[in-house]
Amino acid sequence: MRQPFELAIGLRYTRSKRRNRFVSFISLISVVGIALGITTLITVLSVMNGFQTEVRERILGMASHATVTKRDEPIAEWQKLADTARAHPEVLGAAPYVEAQVMLVNGGQVTGSVVRGIIPEEEPSVSDIVEQMVEGDLAALDESRFNIVLGRALARFLGVGMGDKVTVVSPEAGVTPAGITPRLKRFVVVGIFSTGMSEYDRSMAITSARDAAALMRMKGYTGVRLKLEDMFNSREVAIDLANSLDDIYWVSDWTQQHRNFFRAVQTEKTMMFIILSLIVAVAAFNIVSMLIMVVNEKQADIAILRTLGASPGSVMKIFLVQGTLIGLFGTLLGVIGGVSIASNVESIVPFIESVLGAKFLDPSVYAINYFPSDLQLEDVLWVTLIAFFLSVFATLYPAWRAAQTDPVEALRYD
Length: 414
Known about the structure:
Blueprint: H1 5-15, H2 21-62, E1 66-70, H3 78-86, E2 91-106, E3 109-118, E4 133-136, E5 147-151, H4 152-158, E6 165-176, E7 179-193, H5 198-201, E8 204-208, H6 209-216, E9 223-228, H7 234-244, E10 249-253, H8 254-257, H9 259-284, H10 286-297, H11 299-307, H12 312-343, H13 345-356, H14 377-403, H15 407-411
Parallel strand pairs: 3-8, 5-7
Antiparallel strand pairs: 1-9, 1-10, 2-3, 2-6, 2-9, 4-7, 5-8, 6-7
Helix pairs in contact: 1-12, 2-9, 2-10, 2-12, 2-14, 9-14, 10-12, 10-14, 12-14
């Protein structure tokens, strides 16, 4: 099949060895710049996705996908509420909890904390706390009264370990013959957990729901925590459950409870995308200077084409083909490089660390001491489209300049 002459000439110009080696050098720089920019952008976005996924899973290992509470009063019959929630096809598990703000005291160490009362046999259906235990066993909460499990950072701050006692002070005051006094109780440490998130390891304590309710003098439970099949459908499931329950119940999901954190992470990712896209833009606009030089070099050729009957639009298409091919080649190299690196970050980074003899993420400082990667097709497509669009856009002005060439002026001195 015959191809349009604009395409044929554009391909020939691209393959030909130019007399001006500086133009060829700029063409190479344009291709390499676009490729490096795309590779960097895909890799960084994939690593940011990996960190976001890792943090989200760690948070939801202790928090719940959705929570059902009762307005202004505890929930007495949690089983009925849990059965109603489990009837929804997206709900995998339901478990009650009691939660309150308390103070923990050991000797001279005092700190605020959240105490969560649970039913040990029900809790694994809604959280990963069993897998996060580093000492002791969650079942020990039911072995005797007033046992407690602490986050590792919290236990370290209080200076307590397995078998030690810690005083839990409730903010609810009690009235005695001696006056109003705070309610407090000594708990025995029977376990220590570690989630890798300071939000929980430093401020969370877990006890049995029975003991927490006794400490808070609560008749019932604070609410019911739910685990969903797909956490990203939590908002829709929460709305469905709210519509199926009485108005006295309130249903919230993890996107509401941690909205500010995940919004900040998404904003950071968006800003990083914009900043790194500028690298691609700078590389793409090298095509402008390259094509302007090519247009100046090919003045006589353009004039001859015009005298042979080529229209300004045809001349413009010739140089659009040339610039677009450079952008396409750089984009393809960048996508291949970015996907290859992003898919092997967890192997590449340890190799670089071993060569340099350094650890990029010190485990004593960072909760996540490796570089997770989550390569998403949507990110790759967006990066590819933006890079290719910038490359094509960068060719428009030089191609238009070529189309405006006056054959008489171009051939006057030839």
